[in-house]
Design goal:
Blueprint: E1 5-10, H1 13-21, E2 28-30, E3 38-43, E4 46-52, E5 65-70, H2 73-80, E6 86-94, E7 97-103, E8 109-114
Parallel strand pairs: 1-4, 5-8
Antiparallel strand pairs: 2-3, 3-4, 6-7, 7-8
Length: 115
């Protein structure tokens, strides 16, 4: 089994896209059939999508934790220090390598691992 799709929803899709672009993702804006317009990024067969809230939603799932490998963790952390990202764990060496944890505008924690 291989994970190939993650969809997150937000009240502010454009703001969240700008935030995730800072991690190196690029997005297309499109829709499928009668579905809503949304943003999608594809890397090595993995699709990460940012959708607007459904009508019944009033807040994002802040308990979701995501993880991304990045080419140069130190550069990524330096580039987001003066942005809307919240750094909740500075870079540290773990049994999995260099790792930092940041938080997006909706409160999701994102684990960044040096590739």
């Amino acid at each position: 089994m291989k994970l190939n799709l993650v969809v997150i929803r937000t009240k502010e899709p454009q703001l969240l896209v700008e935030q995730y672009k800072m991690l190196g993702l690029t997005f297309d804006y499109h829709k499928h059939g009668n579905g809503p317009f949304h943003f999608a990024s594809e890397v090595d067969g993995f699709v990460f999508e940012i959708y607007p809230f459904t009508k019944s939603m009033d807040k994002a799932d802040g308990s979701l934790r995501l993880g991304f490998e990045v080419d140069n963790l130190h550069e990524v952390i330096d580039s987001i220090k003066d942005s809307d990202w919240k750094i909740t764990q500075e870079i540290k060496e773990t049994e999995w390598g260099l790792v930092a944890v940041i938080q997006d505008l909706d409160g999701r924690k994102i684990e960044l691992k040096n590739r």
